[in-house]
Queue: 2 jobs
Job 1
Amino acid sequence: MKRVAILISGGGSNMVALAQSMTGDHPARPVLVLSNDPKAGGLARARDMGLAVAAVDHKEFPSDRRGFEGELLAILEAAQPDIICFAGFMRVLGAGFVQRFEGRMLNIHPSLLPKYKGLHTHRRALDAGDTVHGCTVHEVTAALDDGPILGQARLDIGPEDTADTLAARLLPLEHALYPAVLRRFARGDRTPVLIP
Ligand code: GRF
């Protein structure tokens, strides 16, 4: 059975979808939900699900990234995850951290990578006049939002769509895609999941 740590910064809806999917014949189980914000709404949801939680407040390390990552690493080492899932984790981690877990880290990004790496993806897709948008699960490498793609889900952009409506319409697709990719990845299968 693979051990999965989930890193979050916010409400944690992807974390909930991942944790709820890891039951029955699923080859993995959640062992930790870790946040850079002790007040993240997702931590309370994880506690309610009976999951182990921890937080390292990045604000306590204003210009000390090494210190912040050292604390994260110590907590992760203790949890011994086989796989790390970034689910709305909004801190960029350094090459040393990435190297430590390379090949065992996944992230979900709200665009059809390689388009729109970084922030404000919905706004940028609308501004570009795109007709299709989506989300991507990829392996985490040292380059931001750049690793091998393990899954994508698509939706059509409507004439009435705004950045907010796109974000809201995309979330249920994220909650379907990420667990499907994790189930395959935990079995050692990197064949991309495509929705539809
Ligand atoms: C999601 O849209 C995800 O794609 C992005 O951050 C958002 C997190 O949402 N990286 P939640 O905290 O999982 O609800």
Note: The chain has six helices and eight strands.
Job 2
Amino acid sequence: MALQLACKATSRACNKAGIAMLFGLAGEVNSTGDDQKKLDVLSNEIFIDALTNCGACAVLVSEENEDPIFVPEDKAGRFVVAFDPLDGSSNIDCNVSTGTIFAVYEKKSEKNATVSDILRTGNDILVAGYCMYGAATELVISFKGHGVHRFTLDPSLGEFVHIQAHVQLPEGGGKKIYSCNEGNSRNWDAAIKGIIGKWKDRHGDKPYAARYVGSMVSDVHRTILYGGVYLYPADAKSKHGKLRVLYEGFPMAFIMEQAGGAASCGMFKGKIQRLLDIVPETIHEKCPVVIGCKRDVEAVLEEYKIQGLC
Ligand code: FBP
């Protein structure tokens, strides 16, 4: 309930950003050296306040905070939340969809929570989700084993209305769409170059379509509903890719698998790895992301074999 309240408040702030002079930089940098947007700072405060005061959380990890946030003992509960308060921030000022991404664990520590309560595999996630701030504000959430559910915010009610239950990727993989930043292609390894080349030139068959919003929430939301694959692979410049394990990779991989898709890192630390199996060493660790329908994720992994890279 605290997360959905914070999503509503962030949605309103995004809607009013132009009027409320919330576009532009806040003049500070975040935990991984990115310039913070005013809305990054505001949404971060909203989520920290809501989660700290709901009485259910012990420790929080935010993309915008260098260190974990330990909830004061008198307000602490048994859950651990990792979140990216406003993902896709490069799109904020031009009013293209952005989103919030989150994952929830139950703390293991008997007494006070420690960072080891969050540095664990994605298989321990209980709940994950994202909220997309687009033409409509949509919340997509999954409780482990209970399917993926889709809600739309009804501004007149101020409530999220359940619009779709047990969301699944389209049978067989759906539309042939690949989604990645091809501007990085010259730094890609042979397997990623190989598979993208094959999707673009299918010897007479209709080529795959390229779609890339540049906001992970939007690109993943489309992939779940229409099919295809979203990739942010590692490359010669970014050895571990760009996206962060705890509050981007894990939650989206969890949702994708719960929706009948697949989620891999591709080649990571010298081997092909299922994304949820990795164990992050630091709270802002990065990992490559290859997620979507099984048809296309398996084709990427097969290309590593074809190229003799594994
Ligand atoms: P932020 O959390 O800093 O916004 O970075 C994540 C992200 O914006 C994703 O939403 C998006 O998929 C990707 O980075 C876009 O990166 P690039 O501009 O390199 O394609």
Note: The radius of gyration is 19 Å.
